[in-house]
Amino acid sequence: MPLSKILFATDLSPGADHAGRRALQLATAEGARLRVINVIPAPSLDETVLKRWRGDTHHLMADLMAATEQALAERMTTLGASDDLAMEIRCLRGQGHKQILTEAREFGADLIVVGSHGQRSFKDILLGTTTQNLVHHADRPILVVKQPVQGAYRRIVVPVDYSERTRKALHLAAALSPDDSLHAVHAYDMDALDQVLRHRVVASEVARIKQEVRAEQEQALNDFLAGCGLPPARLSAQLRLGYAPTVVEQAVKEWGAELVVMGTHGRNRLQDALLGGVARRVVHQVQAADVLLIRD
């Protein structure tokens, strides 16, 4: 999937700077247009201020938006934006994640880039952060940046659930890191099987059944990767027993990964609900790498 248009949403907090540098790195590497936006909440000014403001509130808002756009331009220059980069700056009014998604659709963004932390009030904590809402509602790939930029991504973990979205995730990961190998990991658990077998089957039979289940999982993983259309030399695969977000977190640490690329849905409606929750949990739990989510 080529990246020709990238949308970077920032609240101008220090926590957004890593995401800004990553957006610049990707836009430069991909030759993409970059749109940088800041959303001023509507209503954006406290009622106590508005009641005491004697001037035209429309002019006040216009001045605030102009000053914000100037601050955005200065911040991007500080982060390393070059003069020849196709970049535009916009300050908007609206409701956080909804306005960002509207802008992404209008711009035709191939990717939304956000930071994992920003300025949060007590109200934000209660209602959910902008990033969390974007992860839940985004209709296009979204990159949640957590780590400082050390150049292009080189070590990428791709969780595998045998879905078409996983196939897309593998190909996007390969495009982002064309010269390096990808680490595919599939997590499975046997909790349900343990519940069925407990106290009803002798230990040797339980071991045999679990061994057969693992063999079937390994075959399914190998078959899926063989059919994904990527050179085998570019892929390493691992099957792990455990809870998927924890398995991904462990793989990131052991592999030294800089990025996780994963689809947010599975192969049917039930898996859509379950795996959507898994993806959001991965975004929350994995701190040692950035997370890129793909959704149709």
TrEMBL record:
InterPro entries: Rossmann-like_a/b/a_fold (IPR014729), Universal_stress_UspA (IPR006015), UspA (IPR006016). This is Nucleotide-binding universal stress protein, UspA family. Keywords: ATP-binding, Nucleotide-binding. CDD domains: USP-like. Gene3D superfamilies: HUPs. PANTHER family: STRESS RESPONSE PROTEIN NHAX (PTHR46268), UNIVERSAL STRESS PROTEIN RV2623 (PTHR46268:SF27). Coiled coil: none annotated. Belongs to the universal stress protein A family. One of its GO terms (molecular function) is ATP binding. The keyword ATP-binding applies. Residues 5-146, 153-295 form the UspA domain.
